[in-house]
Design a protein that fits this description.
By secondary structure, the chain is mostly helical. Helix content is 73%, strand content 0%. α1 packs antiparallel against α2.
Length: 130
């Protein structure tokens, strides 16, 4: 196996780690919200899932698990810009797979942990971006 193939295999492994970490966070966290856990319990489930996934796969991918974290690392030059899209793709696919599994297995899944703005959409997007 050549050097190029080895780099691609490592990036694939890191992408899989990001997929699994993002999947777990969304699956357990949003599942807890839907199942009616209290706010403190939901926060604990999200936090423990993040901690567990950092220990489980953080040594493989760096445990970003969030496109904003990947962008921040790239902007700070602690992560190669050319690999940002691969991480983003893995994270979006992991999140989508988690929510799809929840939506297909939970009775009346509803919005699965999303928040809806109580202000007009444009100001909400500006505030979120800021």
């Amino acid at each position: 196996m050549g050097e190029k193939e080895m780099k691609q295999a490592r990036l694939l492994s890191r992408g899989l780690a990001e997929f699994l970490g993002t999947f777990a966070i969304l699956f357990f966290g949003c599942g807890a919200i839907h199942l009616g856990f209290k706010n403190a319990e939901v926060a604990g489930i999200f936090g423990l899932t993040v901690a567990f996934m950092i220990y489980a796969v953080g040594h493989i991918s760096g445990a970003h698990f969030n496109p904003a974290v990947t962008l921040a690392f790239a902007a700070a030059r602690h992560f190669p810009l050319k690999e940002v899209f691969a991480y983003w793709l893995a994270q979006v696919l992991g999140a989508t797979a988690a929510v799809a599994l929840l939506a297909s297995t939970l009775p009346n899944p509803g919005p699965l942990g999303i928040t809806s703005p109580s202000i007009p959409l444009f100001p909400a997007l500006v505030w979120e971006g800021f």
